[in-house]
């Protein structure tokens, strides 16, 4: 803050000096009130993030407006770091009687490390945001969409931290790593919740048949039903992915490659074991709707129509 006495320093008449002193006193009072307002605004913002209770799901698991707003606010704090470091001298209050926040220990650890209070407030804001996002994910219609929502939103937080050396310096690598792990876990959970049912189609169990009480190697009718089930499930999967949003290009690519790594070898192996049991070429075209190459092409176009926000 400027030194008011220096700003109004002058060698004028007694009347001018009196006016100057009056202005000086008023200016000092205004600055004092501004400083106090700033000290109140940051905790008030933290509380508003915690209490933001909108439950309308974001279409496609996209980035929530709250996430963008909070990270813009965090960037604003970082931009005014020099002034705010002088004003924010009290550590955030993490003792919330009516709310249990899992990552509260992250702030407590930093307190023990004697991090500056302003940095602790930044960590606390992101901890609260992360907690709020977890609550919002519970309003998603499907578990897979909830995982995608967390992946996208926490991924957005991670990206904003990585893009700001000052913010990363204040918050530290440890919490960034934890958030990055959350993103990877959400991505893995998304894959599990969407692909496991499809991959289950490629098991050998249930394809054995019998003839006059004697077991045969493959039941052609069971195989046809299995292929029909896969075709239906993958068609639904394809349709669902067309409505899902992954604005981060790197996460897009990782998800696509992970889907390919799980799906293509399993499907290729299944066809290698059983496609010869489909009687004719006509039947093969009916029941083997997707070639391996077609599957690869479809998967590589998942999430492709959404650029980074």
Can you put this structure into words, describing what you see?
The chain is rod-shaped, with a radius of gyration of 29 Å. α3 runs antiparallel to α6 (117-137). The relative contact order is 0.09. β1 (209-211) and β2 (214-216) form a beta hairpin. The mean pLDDT is 83. Helices cover 69% and strands 2% of the residues. The chain has a two-stranded antiparallel sheet with strand order 1-2. The chain starts with a helix and ends in a 9-residue tail after the last helix. The protein is mainly alpha-helical and 309 residues long. The protein has 13 helices and two strands, in the order αααααααααββαααα. It has helices at 4-7, 14-50, 65-79, 81-87, 104-112, 117-137, 143-163, 165-171, 173-199, 220-241, 249-274, 281-287, 292-300, and strands at 209-211, 214-216. The chain folds into two domains: 4-191, Monooxygenase, CATH 1.20.1280; 203-300, no CATH class. Component of the exocyst complex. Keywords: Exocytosis, Protein transport, Transport.
Report the sheet-strand fraction: under 5%
- Rg is 29 Å
By DSSP (H or I, 4+ residues per run), the number of helices equals 13
User: What would you say the CATH architecture of the largest domain is?
Assistant: Up-down Bundle
Number of strands: 2
Overall pLDDT score: 83
Major β-sheet profile = 2 strands, antiparallel
Query: Which sequence of strands runs across the widest sheet?
Result: 1-2
CATH homology superfamily of the largest domain: Exocyst complex component Exo70
How would you sum up the global shape? Answer: rod-shaped
Number of domains: 2
| Class of secondary structure makeup | mainly alpha
CATH topology of the largest domain: Monooxygenase
What distance separates the N and C termini? 36 Å
Residue windows where pLDDT falls under 50 for at least 5 positions:
none
């Amino acid at each position: 803050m400027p030194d008011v006495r220096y700003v109004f320093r002058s060698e004028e008449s007694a009347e001018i000096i009196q006016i100057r002193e009056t202005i000086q006193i008023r200016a000092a009072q205004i600055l004092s009130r501004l400083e106090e307002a700033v000290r109140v605004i940051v905790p008030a913002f933290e509380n508003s993030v915690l209490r933001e209770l909108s439950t309308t799901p974001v279409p496609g698991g996209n980035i929530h407006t709250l996430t963008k707003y909070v990270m813009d606010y965090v960037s604003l704090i970082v931009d005014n770091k020099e002034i705010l470091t002088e004003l924010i001298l009290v550590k955030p209050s993490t003792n919330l009687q009516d709310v249990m926040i899992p990552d509260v220990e992250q702030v407590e650890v930093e307190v023990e490390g004697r991090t500056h209070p302003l940095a602790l407030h930044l960590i606390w804001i992101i901890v609260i945001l992360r907690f709020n996002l977890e609550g919002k994910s519970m309003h998603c219609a499907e578990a897979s969409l909830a995982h995608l929502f967390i992946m996208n939103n926490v991924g957005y937080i991670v990206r904003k931290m990585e893009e700001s050396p000052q913010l990363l310096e204040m918050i530290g690598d440890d919490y960034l790593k934890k958030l990055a792990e959350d993103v990877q876990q959400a991505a893995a959970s998304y894959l599990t919740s969407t692909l496991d049912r499809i991959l289950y189609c490629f098991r050998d169990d249930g394809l054995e048949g019998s003839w006059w009480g004697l077991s045969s190697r493959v039941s052609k009718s069971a195989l046809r039903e299995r292929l029909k089930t896969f075709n239906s499930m993958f068609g639904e999967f394809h349709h669902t992915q067309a409505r899902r949003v992954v604005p981060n290009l790197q996460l897009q690519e990782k998800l696509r490659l992970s889907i390919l790594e799980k799906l293509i070898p399993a499907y290729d192996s299944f066809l290698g074991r059983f496609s010869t049991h489909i009687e004719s070429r006509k039947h093969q075209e009916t029941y083997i709707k997707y070639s391996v190459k077609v599957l690869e092409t479809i998967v590589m176009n998942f999430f492709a129509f959404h650029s980074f926000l």
